[in-house]
Amino acid sequence: MELVGLADVRAAAERVGEVAVRTPLLPFPGDPDRRLWLKPESLQVIGAFKVRGAFNAIATLDDERRRRGVIAYSSGNHAQAVAYSAHRFGIPAVIVMPDNAPRVKVDATRSYGAEVIEVPISDHAEVAEALAVKRRLTMIPPYDDAAVIAGQGTVGLEIAQDLPDVDVVLVPVSGGGLAAGVAVAIKALCPSAQVIGVEPELAGDTAEGLRVGRLVDWPVADRARTIADGLRAQPSELTFAHLQKYLDGMITVTEDEIRSAIRALAHQAHLIAEPSGAVTTAAYLFHAHELPRGRTVAILSGGNIDPHLLTTLLT
Amino acid sequence: MELVGLADVRAAAERVGEVAVRTPLLPFPGDPDRRLWLKPESLQVIGAFKVRGAFNAIATLDDERRRRGVIAYSSGNHAQAVAYSAHRFGIPAVIVMPDNAPRVKVDATRSYGAEVIEVPISDHAEVAEALAVKRRLTMIPPYDDAAVIAGQGTVGLEIAQDLPDVDVVLVPVSGGGLAAGVAVAIKALCPSAQVIGVEPELAGDTAEGLRVGRLVDWPVADRARTIADGLRAQPSELTFAHLQKYLDGMITVTEDEIRSAIRALAHQAHLIAEPSGAVTTAAYLFHAHELPRGRTVAILSGGNIDPHLLTTLLT
Q1: Fewer C-beta within 10 Å: chain B N or C terminus?
Q2: CATH at B65
Q3: Same domain (yes/no): A222, A296
Q4: Tally of domains within chain A
Q5: For A300, nearest residue in chain B (alpha carbons)
Q6: Contacting residues of B for A42, CB less than 8 Å apart
Q7: Average pLDDT, stretch B259-269?
Q8: Do residues B41 and B131 both lie within one domain?
Q9: Is A111 a catalytic residue?
Q10: Are residues B197 and B249 in the same domain?
């Protein structure tokens, strides 16, 4: 299997610079020793890093395919990422969303001009695959794709540029696209740094998989228990191969630790994180004894939290 | 009266780069025409732009005075800015705070190693002035100081660098240090851009003062009505002279508009703003008809909002 390399990530950075905010590294306030920095991908226009991979995937299509348009299925940030990227290219986008997706996400996706088709979540993939063939649209996968992985890797490239002597990078793991891309970039540019993946305990399939040395499959119902709705997916063969080769370890965090980290990010760093985006800060705050010491970057992957959940957590 | 010039702001940028986060310009989500960008100074370590001016003022002291230490009086972000800057220089700092200041601000100021002295707010200035003489400490004023104005001006310098064809810059006005510095930089580097000050209606002394052509004095009790606790001060002769020369206009916003802007910033941009930091977004969202058209930057000056007020507003 061919893995993504640093050259792919660098090429992605050239393309992605056009739409992605160059997010700064933020020293975490109330950390007098200056050991923790946040990489706030919640500040992207769509509220999450996903725009990097989606835009890169669309940018690398040949002109003719791109003109015909793209399709994706997602209930989450990938939907908005594909819709927004297609809007920036001025091409058609169809997004298949589950009919129980939050109204606010459906509306945001439509606001970029995408055609949204709502179907029962069990028909999600099938409807999208059929439509792709019928309308000759190109499927943009959320993580199982070299161009998507390379695009997400630009987060790692920026970390390496801004803090070349970084010791530890904490990255959320779900389908593994972000973790794979970041690990490729960091390991190439900062070889002495360690890249640690973070998962909720309740969706700890990758931690288990890396321990036993192969992809493991957790029942969907189990993974659905975590409030970190963006971390319920599992790696593909392609992303898992990257994680096996490049990750130095995994940390799992509890639901209470995720909630506390959301509060700390809001009150101390003035950043609104979604649960999936807060797991890395949770790992730093509550699992210091399991982590290597030194200059640490926590990737805050997104901020699209349900407004009601946010107020509940902050109260 | 000698005004601050672009060279002063440029010199301040050299110094301030060491402690201030280089905040990015963030396209405001849900603004498909891409006409509004946010400058999120809430992401500074102390949660507000104030660290720029305080650090620059301390950096420009001669070595001997600096070694003796600094003093400031403030209930707000200036207290933390001076404490944090002194900590970075490794010099003593005394901060005189009102004895009704929020616990969280007193604790934050102490966390940087400053000596905090709590006195009734009416004795604030007097106690600080007396201590400055007695202990031979240098007073760092919150805005009535050329080095402070030049430091705050680095916000404008960065805007001009990142968006050279900006048409409108919206800046909060209280004591006028930020507005003065930003206007100096923008008018020098982007001469066709307009710089518009924003105040709460309930503390609209500067809007009135610029209309009648001289400093006006509003009773403290009147200015204290606004929830924008950082915008209750009034310009000094020095800052007012800059505003008269460089500002293109003023907008005043209502308390409800400020509250709505805090909600919009949280839910759409994933940023926590304090009321004073949200007035510029409020001006953009609710006073479009009073504003020049074009590429607009709203300076989000700080994020230090009372946690209870925040949850009340988001519910």
Answers
A1: N
A2: 3.40.50.1100
A3: yes
A4: 2
A5: B270
A6: 270
A7: 97
A8: no
A9: no
A10: yes
A183 within 8 A of A172, measured Cβ to Cβ: no
Helix (H) or strand (E) holding A116: strand A115-119
Q: How many CB pairs under 8 A join A and B?
A: 75
Q: Is A214 a domain residue? A: yes
Q: Are residues B212 and B128 in the same domain?
A: no
Minimum distance, in Å, between the CA of residue A269 and any CA atom of chain B: 7
- Whether residues A271 and B266 touch (CB distance < 8 A) is answered with no
Helix, coil or strand: residue A47:
coil
**What domain range is B218 assigned to?**
6-47+146-314
Inside any domain, residue B1? no
pTM, 2 dp = 0.96
Active-site annotation holds for B105: no
Within-domain flag for B173: yes
* Cα–Cα distance for residue pair A191/A176, rounded to 1 Å: 20
Last residue of a domain, one of A104, A122, A139: A139
pLDDT 10s digits, A11-58: 999 999 999 999 999 999 876 666 999 999 999 999 999 999 999 999
A89 Cα to chain B: minimum distance (Å)? 14
Query: Do residues B132 and B197 share a domain?
Result: no
Interface contact A29-B46, CB threshold 8 A: yes
Tell the residue number behind the tokens 């395919």, with chain if given: A65
Please check whether residue A1 lies inside any domain of the structure: no
Angle subtended by helix axes A77-89 and A103-111, to nearest 10: 10
Chain B contact for A275 (CB, 8 A cutoff): no
pLDDT digits (tens, 9 = 90+) for B208-258: 999 999 999 999 899 999 999 999 999 999 999 999 999 999 999 999 999
Verify that A280 and A297 share a domain, yes or no: yes
Query: A248 and A193: one domain?
Result: yes
Q: Of the candidates A175, A173, A182, which has an alpha carbon nearest to the alpha carbon of residue A150?
A: A182
